[in-house]
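ligand=flavin-adenine dinucleotide
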Amino acid sequence: MTNEPEWDSIVIGGGLAGLTSGAYLAMAGKSVLLLEQQAGPGGCCMAYTANGRTVPAAAHLVNDPDLINGILRELGAKEIVFTPLDPAFEVTGPCPGKSLIVTSDSEVFEKSARELVPGVPLEHVHMGLGRLIELSRQIHHETRTLPLESPELMSFFKRLILGLSMQRKLKGSMEYGRMPVQQILSSLFPGDEMQCLRAALRSVVPVHGARALDLLQLLGNVVENNIFYPDGGVESLIETLTRCFQAHGGGVRTVAKVTSVDVSGGAVTGVTLAGDISIHADQVSSTSI
Ligand SMILES: Cc1cc2nc3c(=O)[nH]c(=O)nc-3n(C[C@H](O)[C@H](O)[C@H](O)COP(=O)(O)OP(=O)(O)OC[C@H]3O[C@@H](n4cnc5c(N)ncnc54)[C@H](O)[C@@H]3O)c2cc1C
């Protein structure tokens, strides 16, 4: 076996991040090998099989389609058609026979919320929902002040300035990023009689340990009409990126689980795959391990 680098760069993981960074590297003329442990690339954007069960794609909707199409254009890939979605969700279940319609139309949103809690004075629902929407808008605008550039690629000075200004610019995001989602819901919609509405709103972010910020960010995108469905589903985005990566000369190896990143004398030398197979490269990048 030789220790000569076989590739300029190895990318671990074929999700959106790995495919995008791999495509940029390949377009820049690097020889790139992408290693994916599953049977195909896609990560959270494709169905995958674990312990004999097939799990459907996690992601379905996207925000900021112009940003995505801007990246595809830069990479020379075909742009994707996005359809705006409104209402974004219809939450059924917490109270039988009724649903919460999560939409940018505040009247329809509020009407469906009231129907979930028929015994509650109308102004209580109106006040709670009004405040929730106002906070969602605030968080949406705060999030958009964040730079798109990755902090890792910024100079120390720029990172310092960003860190200091975040305290001031992202006041709401910092506060609600620490708060459990149940806490904001209980303060805006208190009492047993509001339980049904709280449960419906909680299930908009169906993740264990969700924070108030998760709900506010999602609702912020709804009320600001920033939710889109990619034609062909998120799978089409993965297929487009995979084709683009390969068209720039990138190699994809699937069913290839990386077990370690190899280092010698303080420098990366490559990776080892399950089965003790080593692949040498000058550079290794990963969002996964
Ligand atoms: C339930 C859920 C719902 C979501 N819904 C949305 C949504 O509607 N809209 C939205 O914009 N975002 C959504 N997201 C977030 C979005 O899916 C992710 O931000 C994005 O897909 C992450 O891409 P990624 O490339 O960073 O990671 P992943 O998609 O996780 O990709 C990582 C890849 O690395 C591979 N890998 C890991 N370890 C190894 C290893 N050792 N060797 C080889 N390969 C390895 C994995 O198999 C995987 O394919 C959702 C996420 C979840 C969990």
